[in-house]
Amino acid sequence: MALSCRYAARCCARQLRAGSAAATPIRASSSFLQQHHMSRRYNSTDAASANPKIAAIVDQISQLTLLETADLVASLKSRLNIPDLPVGGFAAAPAAAAAAPAAAPAEQEEEAPAAAEKTLFTVKLQSFDAAAKPKVIKEIKNLLGLSLVDSKKFVESAPKTMKESVPKDEAEKIVATMKELGAVVVME
């Protein structure tokens, strides 16, 4: 675990002040720094320091380089069968994992491709009501950030792709908004 820069600077300054009078070497023991650092941590629990086995593992991990840490994470994922989370799936994955019953690893591997769901969509303007044309133009202007003239040309050239690679919930909001205005929009 790395110490904060501010704390390290304070330790060095103390050592310089104490060492200049006695002409002793300037070096703080790592156990002193770790003990002092751990005592100043806010919102920490002492459970980690209560188990010496865990403390030894934490000390070993803290001395690893970045590449070694990446290898450790990859090894743990493969050994413990931990899947990689998609970018948008942080909240949904733990809830789904908690709700799913325990299954054999072979069954999970078979279900994984079937459970893969399309997450990014293309939103396409198909058509619109002639009476709702001004409202649709305004909404397209707001959604796409186009000028009024470009928005009018865009709407008149329907069917046309509005947005690509849009998350599902955002695409559904766009479709609902455009349907309220009298436009026909599809998610592909």
From TrEMBL:
One of its GO terms (biological process) is translation. Residues 121-186 form the Large ribosomal subunit protein bL12 C-terminal domain. Signal peptide: none annotated. The keyword Ribosomal protein applies. One of its GO terms (cellular component) is mitochondrial large ribosomal subunit. Keywords: Ribonucleoprotein, Ribosomal protein. Coiled coil: none annotated. Residues 53-100 form the Large ribosomal subunit protein bL12 oligomerization domain. Belongs to the bacterial ribosomal protein bL12 family. This is Ribosomal protein L7/L12 C-terminal domain-containing protein.
